[in-house]
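Aim 2 progress update. The chain analyzed this quarter is reproduced below.
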Amino acid sequence: MAQDIHSPSGQEKVFDTGLALRQAVREGRFSGDTAGKAPGLLQGNLAILPKALAHDFLLFCQRNPKPCPIIGIGEAGEVALPDLGQDIDIRTDVPAYRIFRPGQAPERVDDLNSVWRDDLVTFVLGCSFSFEEALVAAEIPVPHIEAGRNVPMYVTSIETRPAGAFSGPLVVSMRSFSPADAIQAILLSSRQPLAHGAPVHIGDPAQIGIRDIMSPDFGDQPVMKDGDIPVFWACGVTPQMAIRNCGADLAITHDPGHMLVTDIPAETAESRLWGIAQNNNN
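Predicted structure tokens:
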């Protein structure tokens, strides 16, 4: 059964800047999913873990770059991520979070002020929402955006490469297109490796362990037209599956579909982040 992550009423606004969206989130004026809400900007999945597990998680990301493309890592206890945007506070600037504790169901919360600790390390991973602007600019319909829904996401039968305490199945997001638009979507997404790049599967969902495409594990039911081809991208919810069983006394992610929106243009993200990394190393 899919988890209901519909945007609340009045969450249809599109923001001109990442800062404007983050401030709206921090002030309680926006709490919906972020698909299509910040056109052209790089969005990020969130994974926050105790420092003792940070090395293992970094290795997990390096071994699984399609679902876990790293776009930012904070120092232990750091809440600002200046390389990704102005005035970011990771405790408050994501519309919804998930908290994982051993033996408990994930808890959905609006902020992290009551649970933040000095040993927590923030990882920000690329998100497929970022390449959707390129599709929209190319006049390729993106079904969940047009319908005002969250993207459908599915747990697959494909296993990730384990690292230390982290292992689990690959999660994918799905968008359906006409055959011609599917080809264009593949080409456009392949240009943005930090947003998961090219798809991992096209066509029959059963081949990757998805029993019912109309019943996603996360997000909303898909909108599909006759003749559409389902196209599946690696999804940043994948680390949540690995985090569930990592043994951390506290672990935090974004709630599926509710991303950290950065100030970085998606189309130039790779070169810009590479330049920041080089400057930081000098």
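Residues 1-10 have pLDDT under 50 and may be disordered. The helical segments are 18-26, 51-63, 129-137, 143-146, 179-189, 238-243, 269-281. These observations will guide the mutagenesis experiments scheduled for the next reporting period.
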